Amino acid sequence: MRFRARRASRTRRWFEALLLLGGLAGVGIWGWSRIHLALSQKEADKVLERSLATRPAIPKPTPKAPPPLPEGTLLGRIVIPRLKMQTVVREGAGTETLDVAAGHIPGTALPGQTGNVGVAGHRDTLFRGLRNIAKNDLIEFETPTGSYNYEVESTRIVKPQDVEVLESNGHAEITLVTCYPFNYVGSAPNRFIVKARLANTPEQVAQVPPAPPVAPAQPQPEPPPAKKAEAPRVKRAIEPVRRKPPPVMRASVSKRPRSATRKVSFRVGESHSTQLAPGILLGVSRADAVRDRASGWLWVGRARHTIWLRNQPARQPLLFHSNDDSRRAELMITKVSRNAVSGYLLLFGDTHD
Q1: Any residues with CB less than 8 A from the CB of 113 and at least 6 apart, and which?
Q2: Whole domain around residue 311: which residue ranges?
């Protein structure tokens, strides 16, 4: 009896040791997959940043029928500012690709083309933030040839065989696909679909030249009549000075309105974005502390347009319309550090010069 008891105890200990080793191996595999994902994303971001730094000001047109891309080709980066979510995108939807990036679904359109851009990702890693996505959220797709802003129109849940969600409706759009439910253990039975429509193309985006403020030209006084008194001549000479200057254009450097109704301070790191005010998002792609300049973008949701910041100098005000009426705003970058940008946003009421 004692021998049987010792044998049973030894067998139990071996079984417990095997279970412990199996658990440790599982945790190790899970940990390595997360580390591998993070390293792959970081390396791809470096490669992409080098491509974006040399991107031309005028985007290259995307061919209507480009040749098939090899599996794993780096296409660009998706950024959803409100969710603070970003991921690189590679060609293909195979397991090896989706383990390290979001995957562009072969056969769908490419960014810049008229059609449906399909992108898939795992619900428990890169696309987990989609569970909180909402209508009118901004989805930015950055590529070496241009950046494309999409505005979320709807979400839905479909079966895996419902592939018609990837069909083109004749306009430029993007469809994000991930498994559903998000907290499901095992192979999820459904798919979560995010539909977003192109809000603007790079050719429609207002460029922001870093030019100093220029005073409006004053018309030359008319020559006085030969037989007129001096008083009328003095009046004519000063009349042009009282005329109103031209109206402020979007994203132009001009005369500041008289009073601000709200001031919002900010500090944004490289490759990050933040909401400065309802409908106004600021993203920073590069902070150049040596030259005291920054590059990035302003998304004005109500007016539905993007303002690109191309080497915007610090301490130079940037005036723009915060919506389609006369409300104005001013962005001021006060400090550019090694990897962050600081400043403030002034929001004005219905002011006029």
Answers
A1: 62, 64, 172
A2: 230-348
